[in-house]
Amino acid sequence: GRDFFYLCSKNTTLPSGLLVLVILATYFKQEVTPAREGRFTLKARFLGKWEDFALQVVESAVLADIQVIRESMDQEFGSSVSAAERHRIINNRSDAVLRLMNRLNEGQPPIKSTARQGPDLLTSSLPPLQLLREFFSNP
């Protein structure tokens, strides 16, 4: 099975690694602070609250695709952009998106979290399995 990221505020399930790519490529309320050895901190603002993501680049080529998407966002709508240029901008951006999605589909996210994983909400809210066994075996 693949890992998933649960975005509870939107009641949405996303493949692991997708949210970070979307934030880096398209979200304007974000800041990146480089660290060392491919690690960095991404700060993104959601509904007025800043959240930090501790991340590491696994595949450096992904940064070039993120840059293509980020730099070409909405460029095709410029009044001086020719139809041929508009077509090129859209194709380059869609090719970059496709490469990112293919990387996600191949397995591990190209940018992964370095944050220590805690127990998930559902598991941590359940009683221990032994307690459940005792409860159901003693009517």
Primary descriptors:
elongated; 139 residues
Q: Would you write up a description of this structure?
A:
The chain is α+β, with helices and mostly antiparallel strands. The chain has five helices and six strands, in the order ββαβββααβαα. The strands form two sheets. It has a four-stranded antiparallel beta sheet with strand order 3-4-5-6, covered by helices on one side. Strands 1-2 form a two-stranded antiparallel sheet. It starts with a strand and ends with a helix. The relative contact order is 0.14.
Please render the helix and strand layout as text.
Layout: E1 4-7, E2 12-15, H1 18-26, E3 30-34, E4 39-46, E5 49-57, H2 61-72, H3 83-105, E6 111-113, H4 121-125, H5 129-137
* Helical amount: 40-55%
Instruction: State the separation between the terminal residues, measured CA to CA.
Output: 36 Å
Order of strands side by side in the largest beta sheet?
A: 3-4-5-6
Q: Specify the structural class.
A: alpha+beta
The Cα radius of gyration reads 20 Å
Total count of helical runs of at least 4 residues: 5
β-strand amount: 15-25%
* Sheet with the most strands, sense and barrel status: 4 strands, antiparallel
Poorly predicted regions are none
Which descriptor suits the 3D outline?
Answer: elongated
H/E element order: EEHEEEHHEHH
Let me know the number of strands: 6
Oligomerization: single chain
**Average pLDDT, to the nearest integer?**
80
